[in-house]
Write a structure and sequence with these properties.
It is a single chain. This protein is mainly alpha-helical and 59 residues long. Helix content is 69%, strand content 0%. Helix 1 (2-11) packs across helix 3. The model has no long low-confidence stretch (mean pLDDT 94).
Length: 59
């Protein structure tokens, strides 16, 4: 799953069926979509915050 998340982040245009095949041994299609969406939202949030030089709220 970590390799999948890393590939989404760094090289999503090179994604292939083989990248998903290993995940299918452990996760349903719905769970794989949810993992991908979570990674994409985190990436979006990071890029947005970096663009506007936002400091994280560490509470």
């Amino acid at each position: 799953m970590i390799l999948f998340a890393d590939k989404i982040t760094r090289a999503s245009t090179t994604m292939c069926d083989g990248d998903l095949e290993g995940l299918r041994n452990y996760f349903s299609e719905e769970q794989i979509v949810e993992i991908a969406l979570t990674v994409c939202v985190a990436n979006f949030t990071n890029r947005f915050n970096e663009t506007f030089l936002c400091e994280p709220d560490l509470g």
